[in-house]
């Protein structure tokens, strides 16, 4: 779920970045001056926007993709609480039954 939210946040940030690169062409001659004067503020703003987009994507993923997880997995919880349910292991699959002769 974190990977999905991270992917969404990166995609949105790239879309914002490409849009801003097209709209702010008039800053190209001043890019060194602007970067030296405001680099800390620009990086803090970009980091804050990224964290907000990531948190929103994570919350939406939890809200819509994990909708009925508890209800869907309740049968497993019931089986584990019973205690006498045997789960087959890979070792059990390799051993032949006792009543079948081995050639």
Question: How would you sum up this structure, described in words?
Answer:
By secondary structure, this protein is mainly α. The chain has one domain. It has 5 helices and no strands. The longest helix is centred in the middle third of the chain and has 35 residues. The radius of gyration is 27 Å and the shape is elongated. The mean pLDDT is 83.
Average pLDDT over all residues: 83
Write down the Rg. 27 Å
Task: Assess the beta-strand content as a share of residues.
Answer: under 5%
Quaternary organisation of the protein chains: single chain
| Strand/helix succession | HHHHH
The SS-based structural class is: mainly alpha
Globular, elongated, flat, extended or rod-shaped: what is the shape? elongated
How large is the count of helical segments?
5
| Helix-residue proportion | over 70%
* Sequence stretches where pLDDT stays below 50 over 5 or more residues: none
Question: Biggest sheet, in brief?
Answer: none
Straight-line N-to-C gap: 51 Å
What's the β-strand tally? 0
As for the number of domains, it is 1
Defining traits:
103 residues, mainly alpha, 5 helices
Helices and strands in order:
Blueprint: H1 2-23, H2 31-65, H3 69-72, H4 74-82, H5 90-94
Compact summary:
With 103 residues, this protein is mainly α. The chain has helices at 2-23, 31-65, 69-72, 74-82, 90-94.
């Amino acid at each position: 779920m974190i990977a999905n939210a991270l992917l969404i946040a990166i995609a949105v940030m790239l879309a914002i970045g490409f849009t801003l690169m097209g709209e702010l062409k008039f800053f190209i001659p001043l890019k060194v001056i602007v970067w030296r004067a405001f680099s800390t503020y620009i990086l803090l703003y970009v980091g804050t926007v990224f964290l907000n987009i990531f948190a929103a994507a994570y919350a939406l993923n939890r809200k819509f993709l994990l909708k009925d997880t508890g209800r869907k997995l309740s049968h497993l919880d019931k089986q584990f609480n019973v205690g006498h349910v045997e789960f087959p292991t890979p070792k059990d699959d390799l051993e032949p039954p006792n009543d079948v002769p081995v050639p």
